[in-house]
Amino acid sequence: MSSTEAPAENLHGLGKGTCPNLTVVAAMLNERGQLESWLENLSWVDHIVIVDHGSSDGSLEFMKKQPQCQCVSATKGEGLIEDIRSHGLAVVEDGWVLVLDMDERVTQELREEIESAITSNPEEDGFRIPFRHYVFGRWMKHGGWDDEHLRLFRAGKGHYTPGKIHADANVEGLVGQLKGQILHFAHPTIHDFLMRMNRYTTQSAETLASGKPGGLRKRVRLPESRWRWFQASASFFWTRYIKHRGFRDGMAGFIIAFMLAAYLFVEQAKAWEYIREKQT
Q1: What is the pLDDT of residues 124-162, one digit of tens each?
Q2: CA dist 76 → 29, 81, 84, 200 (Å)
Q3: Where are the domains of the chain?
Q4: CATH assignment of 8-186, given 3.40.50.720, 3.90.550.10, 3.40.50.150, 3.40.50.300?
Q5: What is the spatial distance between Cα 238 and Cα 80, in angstroms, rounded to a whole number?
Q6: Helix or strand or coil: residue 69?
């Protein structure tokens, strides 16, 4: 199996059955091409809450026909994904919640861990889950892509901070760690990356302009300095490509490291633009 391919058994259904204490919450916007695969991967869960925020490709109509799905609506437009997920969390009253995006899949190992955890009445109120990221169709083994996120928690115990982009949920109580992975098929094409970068940097511009931490690095806006902006982008590229050995992922590693460095620059530029527009 090539390093660019995900394990076939992790892409589709993980076996039939139900997990009655678990609800999956997902935001949806024009995801029609992924829905069958995503639902098949979650055939073992009992309930799914979909928060649609403006789909126009038939996604909402398709999901409304699925017996295990409950569809709610969020404000149409460019809202933060974290704020949109909160609409779904609000309707889950008991059991456990797994937050899973449409480009993510649960591995068999993770399914077994989740089922074991939520049926054993653990002392933890949430669990962090490791991610395996695929970019441009390739598994990013290096370059700082080995991360984890808090995606599993008791209903009512987890929430997202309003207006905070790229943020994990906050969980009231003890947080544990799982070993099984979520496979994240991020940015299948360069076009997809650029579209998401444009949307996310626009969303973070107001936060950065206000002096609050935000954006890709969750830090405050840099001083208005050409040298500081260039230095920050160059440093990010060096960290991803050299320090974290992104070069070992071939040309894909080089391209994504360079584009992430550009992402930082665009964030600063849009915050600068936002301030100028407010002053006029």
Answers
A1: 999 999 999 999 999 999 999 999 999 999 999 999 887
A2: 9, 12, 10, 16
A3: 8-186, 190-279
A4: 3.90.550.10
A5: 29
A6: strand
Q: Helix, strand, coil shares of the chain as percentages rounded to 5?
A: 40, 20, 40
* Element spanning 176, H or E: strand 175-177
Q: Annotate 71-135 with DSSP letters as a single string.
A: EEE--SSS--HHHHHHHHHTT--SSEEEE--TTEEE-HHHHHHHHHHHHS--S-SEEEEEEEEEE
Q: What DSSP designation does 243 have?
A: I
> For residue 215, which of 257, 269, 170 has the smallest C-alpha distance?
269
Q: What is the pLDDT of residues 91-102, one digit of tens each?
A: 999 999 999 999
Each residue of 6-23: pLDDT tens digit? 443 444 444 444 455 899
Q: What is the rounded distance in angstroms from the CA atom of residue 180 to the CA atom of residue 196?
A: 27
Alpha helices in 162-249 (DSSP H): 190-209, 226-238
Using DSSP bridges, classify how beta strands 104-106 and 182-186 pair: parallel, antiparallel or unpaired: antiparallel
Rounded to whole angstroms, how far apart are CA atoms 221 and 234?
16
- Across the chain, which distance is largest between two alpha carbons, in Å? 59
Among 8, 11, 92, smallest CA distance to 50 is for 92
Residue 210 near residue 164, CB atoms below 8 Å? no
The CA-based dihedral angle spanning residues 87, 91, 95, 97, taken in that order and rounded to the nearest 10 degrees: -20
Helices (H) and strands (E) in the chain, counts: 7, 12
